[in-house]
Structures are given as structure tokens and as C-alpha cells.
């Protein structure tokens, strides 16, 4: 087993085991009248502090294929009573000249002092492929440490009939530490339909600007040997003087469309099969094309003309 797989498995196991264990204990508290009687519910903050949102921009590069990356995203989060929240995400990406766009919807309950538990669904549309994912989302807050995870079922459908659609388990998790109230450092792992990766990320909220703005950075390595790096800016809407750690725990969860872009790797690349992809008669004809040449290896693979 590679170091990448071992590290990814350990990180994902810690995120989901601890996060969902915390959620179960929270559910036991809610369902137990005896425990409720001992709690001062007036001290529990709302799941979402108030209507809020964020806009994210990032630039960088990726290897295999060697290309620039541009990503942009936005999220809006609103409270539903005191106990629940809803968030909508939008995202756009350009890699190697190919554009993709998507959306996601979160529904969750949260105690900002200890946990978040909800369900999130997202879909990404690219040239030639559609990727969808749905499943539970959880976060656990331990002083300056946060454990965050999203897992469930994903599927990808290709427009090209020669490509095989796929579906199966996906998971992504992050272990984050806040050295200060306005600085976050994180390590994460993801697996989705055979694409696996590890990432290092950071975010720092600038002080004294008069409005909430932070700088972001991420480096991600894939199991194919490819890697990517990005830097960006993130602007927040809501309470202007709130610290970064409070924004992450009292306002909007992560934009999961941007997380799907990062985790998917080359799954969403333009994978259309062209005749020029084949240089021998057998492979050409197996792909549904016509081999125009005198021998198995001398000739040109061509598409049938109606």
C-alpha cells in the first residue's frame, strides 16, 4: 500500500469516525428527556448566526496536463429557525481551456460550540461529462481543531457512448488547526471514483481592511503523480468584525462544488475518443472507427462517413 493511500485512509477514518460519533452523542442528548432537563438550552447558539455568504477566487496550475487553473465560487447561507441552516453553492472552473460549472445544496443542524451534522448534494457539469455526489456532511469542533468530512455516493455520466459511466463511494475529509483566530492550516484527503488525492491548505483573514477578506493557498497531490497549486482570495458577507474561526463555525460550511473540482482530478477532463487516438488497426476498430491502411500498423484511423 502506497504512502498516499495509507495517509488518506488514516485521515478519512479519523474525520468520519470522530465526527459522526460526536453527532450520535448529540442526538442522544436531544432524545433523552433527562439530559435535556440538565441543559440550559438558552446557551446554545443558532446553527447559522444570520444571513451570510462568501465569494472565492483562485489561480494556479496543474501538471498532467500542464495547464493553468482558474476557479471561482460563491455561497449563501441562511438560518432556518435556530436549529437548522441551508446553504447554496455555485462554482466555475477552467483547466486546459475546458470549462466546468456546478452547484451544491446543504441542509444541516449545528451547535457552533461542538458540531455540525447535515446532508449535502452537488453536481458538476463539464464538456462531455456530468458528476454528481450526495451524502452526509459532518464537522466536529475541539477548541482550535476542526474535523470536517463529507462522504456518500457519486456517479459520473459521459456523453461519449464509447466511455463507461461509473458510480461508487466517495469521501473527503479535512483536519484543520487554527494557530490564531484568523489563521487556519489544514491537511485533507479525498477519494472519488478512483481518483485519490492529498492536500495541504491555509487561509488567513487580513485585519484592518474595514471588510472581511482572506488569502488562501492549496497544494494537492494525486495518486497519478500529478499535483496542483493555487493561491486566491476569499471575501465574506455578514458580520464585518467576526474572526475567521467563528465564520467557519457559525456561518457558512465549505463550498462543496470547489471541493468536487479538486477531488475529481482528471475525471471531468474532456475524454472524448477521437480516431487520431489510435495507431493500429485492432484498437481503431475496437473503438468503432475505420482503419485505412495496408497493414495492422501502417495506416490512419478514420471515422465512418454517413
Give a short summary of the structure:
Helix content is 19%, strand content 50%. The chain is an alpha+beta fold. The protein has a 12-stranded antiparallel β-barrel.
Question: What do you see in this structure?
Answer:
- By secondary structure, this protein is α+β, with helices and mostly antiparallel strands.
- It contains 5 helices and 14 strands.
- The protein has helices spanning 3-31, 33-38, 244-250, 256-264, 281-286; strands at residues 52-62, 67-80, 84-95, 98-111, 115-126, 129-142, 145-158, 166-180, 183-192, 195-205, 213-222, 227-237, 290-292, 300-302.
- The strands form 2 sheets. Strands 1-2-3-4-5-6-7-8-9-10-11-12 form a 12-stranded antiparallel barrel. It has a two-stranded antiparallel sheet with strand order 13-14.
- A hairpin with a 2-residue loop joins β6 and β7 (145-158).
- The longest helix is centred in the N-terminal third of the chain and has 29 residues, at 3-31.
* Fraction in helix: 10-25%
Low-confidence stretches: 13-42
Head-to-tail CA distance between termini: 49 Å
* Major beta sheet summary: 12 strands, antiparallel, barrel
What radius of gyration results from the CA coordinates?
Answer: 22 Å
Number of helices: 5
Mean pLDDT, all residues:
85
Major beta sheet, strand line-up: 1-2-3-4-5-6-7-8-9-10-11-12
Could you spell the SSE succession in H and E letters?
HHEEEEEEEEEEEEHHHEE
Q: How many beta-strand elements?
A: 14
- Structural class determined from secondary elements: alpha+beta
Task: State the main characteristics.
306 residues, alpha+beta, twelve-stranded antiparallel beta barrel, two-stranded antiparallel ribbon, 5 helices, 14 strands, 50% strand
